[in-house]
Design brief:
Length: 349
């Protein structure tokens, strides 16, 4: 198996658990079996928020759709269930492996225990997990990112855009992964403009409490930060981030999106004028490249990390107001060069 350490950029990325399958891209045929010897394609097991979050999960879906189109797959994606346990996740992944899907990807760090257990039972299937690098197995690809680097650039943009000298960060869940977003953002702000206050709030202590899946929580948090003077608010909160963007739009301040280019998301079109930029990570590319490696007979495994250097993370340029702002563009470009050449080291906590 081919072990890699860097992401290859694509296109630039409860009993028997009657698995609720929602097909993305091609329609899935869950009655199909691996006994046919034919790989049905890849399978995604979504994180909380599910398909339609306009962010993290939808980026994974875009990678699935691309693989389906290119390889003629009939891939599938499975929504999470409320209050599910690790055992439920194990059963879901086992079902997908038995049905003949390869690779099988857990979209989110919550799948780590389940991926570790199921991968050991199915050594001929390649498994992937997004946002976790704790699993060391010959048939597992850990798809991770330097989120702090893109967040640093978002902080630079926020510092250049703020007029009130107060900006906000809304994290979905109080966990180390989301701390990376917050730390990078805060450092980018402070390195760019002294005296800017960064308001920080994490919506919940655990994902089960809805921190990644509650737009109302995001909206309330953003309202509080805006009331306290923030005129740029960055959210790393999955589906909850939609509420942050809604609040920013209502108060005519800037929002910064995350994971996907949220300026381009259809469901957010009525708010897009308020989306300054998005700190993106190429989950789409990571999912597609893992599927391609399996299709080519050389499955990627090991840690595959996206960075500014390899295009795995970036800052979107879709909003014309952002793209045409010379002061912001120059500052972001300088910061990006500094991160790439090592003169800027971005904190992760």
């Amino acid at each position: 198996m081919r072990r890699v350490s860097r992401i290859a950029v694509a296109g630039v990325a409860t009993a028997a658990l009657a698995v609720t399958v929602s097909a993305c891209g091609s329609s899935s045929t869950s009655s199909s079996s691996s006994s046919s010897g034919k790989n049905l394609g890849l399978a995604l097991a979504y994180d909380v928020g599910g398909k339609g979050d306009q962010s993290f999960n939808d980026a994974a879906t875009a990678g699935l759709d691309k693989a389906d189109k290119e390889f003629g797959y009939k891939s599938t994606a499975v929504e999470p269930q409320d209050g599910e346990s690790d055992a439920d996740k194990v059963q879901r992944l086992e079902t997908l492996a038995k049905q003949g899907y390869n690779p099988v990807i857990g979209v989110g760090f919550a799948y780590a225990p389940a991926v570790k257990e199921v991968a050991a039972k199915y050594p001929k299937i390649t498994f992937g997990i997004v946002d976790d690098e704790t699993i060391k197995a010959d048939n597992v690809a850990d798809l991770v990112f330097h989120e702090e680097q893109a967040s640093y650039l978002a902080g630079v943009a926020a510092a250049k855009a703020t007029k009130s000298n107060t900006v906000g960060f809304v994290g979905g869940v109080d966990v180390p992964l989301i701390h990376k977003f917050g730390a990078g953002f805060k450092q980018g702000v402070e390195d760019t403009k002294k005296g800017v206050t960064v308001k920080e709030q994490y919506l919940t202590e655990t994902a089960q409490e809805g921190g990644f899946a509650s737009p109302d929580k995001g909206e309330n948090a953003a309202e509080g930060q805006i009331d306290a003077g923030a005129d740029v608010v960055y959210a790393a909160a999955g589906l909850s981030g939609q509420g942050v963007i809604k609040a920013a739009n209502a108060h005519k301040v800037w929002a910064i999106g995350v994971d996907s280019d949220q300026y381009k998301q259809d469901a957010l079109a009525k708010y897009k004028g308020s989306i300054l930029t998005s700190a993106m990570k190429n989950v789409e590319g990571a999912v597609y490249e893992l599927a391609k490696s399996v299709h080519d007979g050389k499955p990627e495994t090991g840690t595959i990390r996206g960075s500014l250097d390899n295009g795995g993370v970036s800052l979107s340029n879709s909003n014309p107001d952002f793209a045409s702002n010379t002061a912001i563009q120059d500052a972001v470009k300088k910061a990006e060069e500094g991160i790439k050449n090592g003169t800027i080291t971005v904190k992760t906590s």
